[in-house]
Design a protein that fits this description.
Layout: H1 6-11, E1 19-31, E2 35-41, E3 49-54, E4 70-79, E5 87-98, H2 113-116, H3 120-123, H4 127-149, E6 153-154, E7 160-161, E8 173-174, H5 186-191, E9 199-201, H6 206-216, E10 218-226, E11 239-248, H7 252-273, H8 275-284, H9 289-298, E12 302-305, H10 306-315, H11 332-343, E13 347-350, E14 372-377, E15 381-388, H12 393-402, H13 411-418, E16 424-430, H14 431-439
Parallel strand pairs: 3-5, 6-10, 12-13
Antiparallel strand pairs: 1-2, 1-4, 2-3, 4-5, 7-9, 8-9, 10-11, 11-16, 13-14, 14-15, 15-16
Amino acid sequence: MKHTDLRVIFDDAAYIGQEVTVCGWVRTSRDSKTMAFLELNDGTTFRHLQIVLDKSVITDPAPFLKLGTALCVTGTLVQGAVQQGSVEINAKELTVLGECPSDYPLQKKRHTLEYLRTIPHLRVRSNTFNAVFRVRSVVSAAIHTYFQQNNYVYIHTPILTSSDCEGAGEMFKVTTIGYSNEYKSEEEYYANDFFGKKASLSVSGQLEGEVAAMALGKIYTFGPSFRAENSNTPRHVAEFWHVEPEVAFADLTDIIGIAEDMIKFIINTVLEKCPDELAFFEKHFEAGLREKLNAVATNDFAVLDYTDAIEMLKKADVDFVYPVEWGCDLQTEHERYITEVVFKKPVFVTNYPKDIKSFYMKQNPDGKTVAATDLLVPGVGEIIGCSEREADLTKLLAAMEAKGMSIEEYHDYLDLRKFGSAPHSGFGLGLERIIMYVTGVSNIRDVLLYPRTVGSIR
């Protein structure tokens, strides 16, 4: 049906004084003796448009005031009577496009996030999730814009895989057979499966991304990843979106610079395009959010060696739940102390012990650490895992053997080190974690349309 988006109505003053037709869902309503008022939102903007119903014109407004009802409204757009700079419609004709009964769950103005997680199909209509998914869209577009403007090639890597990128084994198995007692062994089972061997959902597109980078120079992937971690933390889900650039002829310092530049580009884009959403998040989720984002976008990130980070944490006058010793993996409490108490800004922690990092990371000359870094940000912790990749075939083989990995399963990957190997680096950014950072939303379940977690899928 012919109508005008609310975003266009708000952005173009030429519509004032004109008759317009708009569509949307009733978000709030109130009734009085001679007038009735409702606020409409159509999803094209975070802002609601007030509709004024004069009862001498709209004699029975009751069907149009029920929350959640989908309406088509025709009337004259005028300057707002109360709020300066606002606009509203004096309604001439209203049509109910979709009725909404009184048991509509979003009756109150404020619901807890825990309650809203029980109605994911409706929570998008609340102000919080209207804002979250609008920001998510802008962040996603900014990521593509950043890489396209910098001459990266967008690569679609497989979701189905026969290898474990991380070497951790926490993967979702894929099979067409399902439960069966017909086979004597796992090998026989998978030999009769669709692919003739074990297959899983990919935890990362990195290995295939490296293949592309060794021919195309600078590439990025952007798609879903799946990890079967039995974790119920506010930062982990089983299905998330993953941004993974791979850059040929780049060392760790180069890729750190790229990661910082990309994060700042994303933040500047959100600051520019989402002012209403950020004002909402600052009011309801994180005080000082816009000041924080502006500070990140205009200041250099810190760089801290892992060994120095451990010494710093040991000297901290804090009773950490997890003990700190050289060789341990940093926990969220350690990451947040470094970023929130010590530096008060994002920090790249570099040169981690090789025993706690993945097999593909370049080994440093000291024989104990690898050329890897995690980008830690206040309020969230790690949002980027990054490293220079091991380009030396002998060292890569030794690392794989030390971790008990099957060399045969990585034949293609090893060939990259055999035929024209070159220094290269890359990183992975969890989309949901950067969205958490720019919105102040503290639980990853609240930045996904349908979060997938242990024991929960719908």
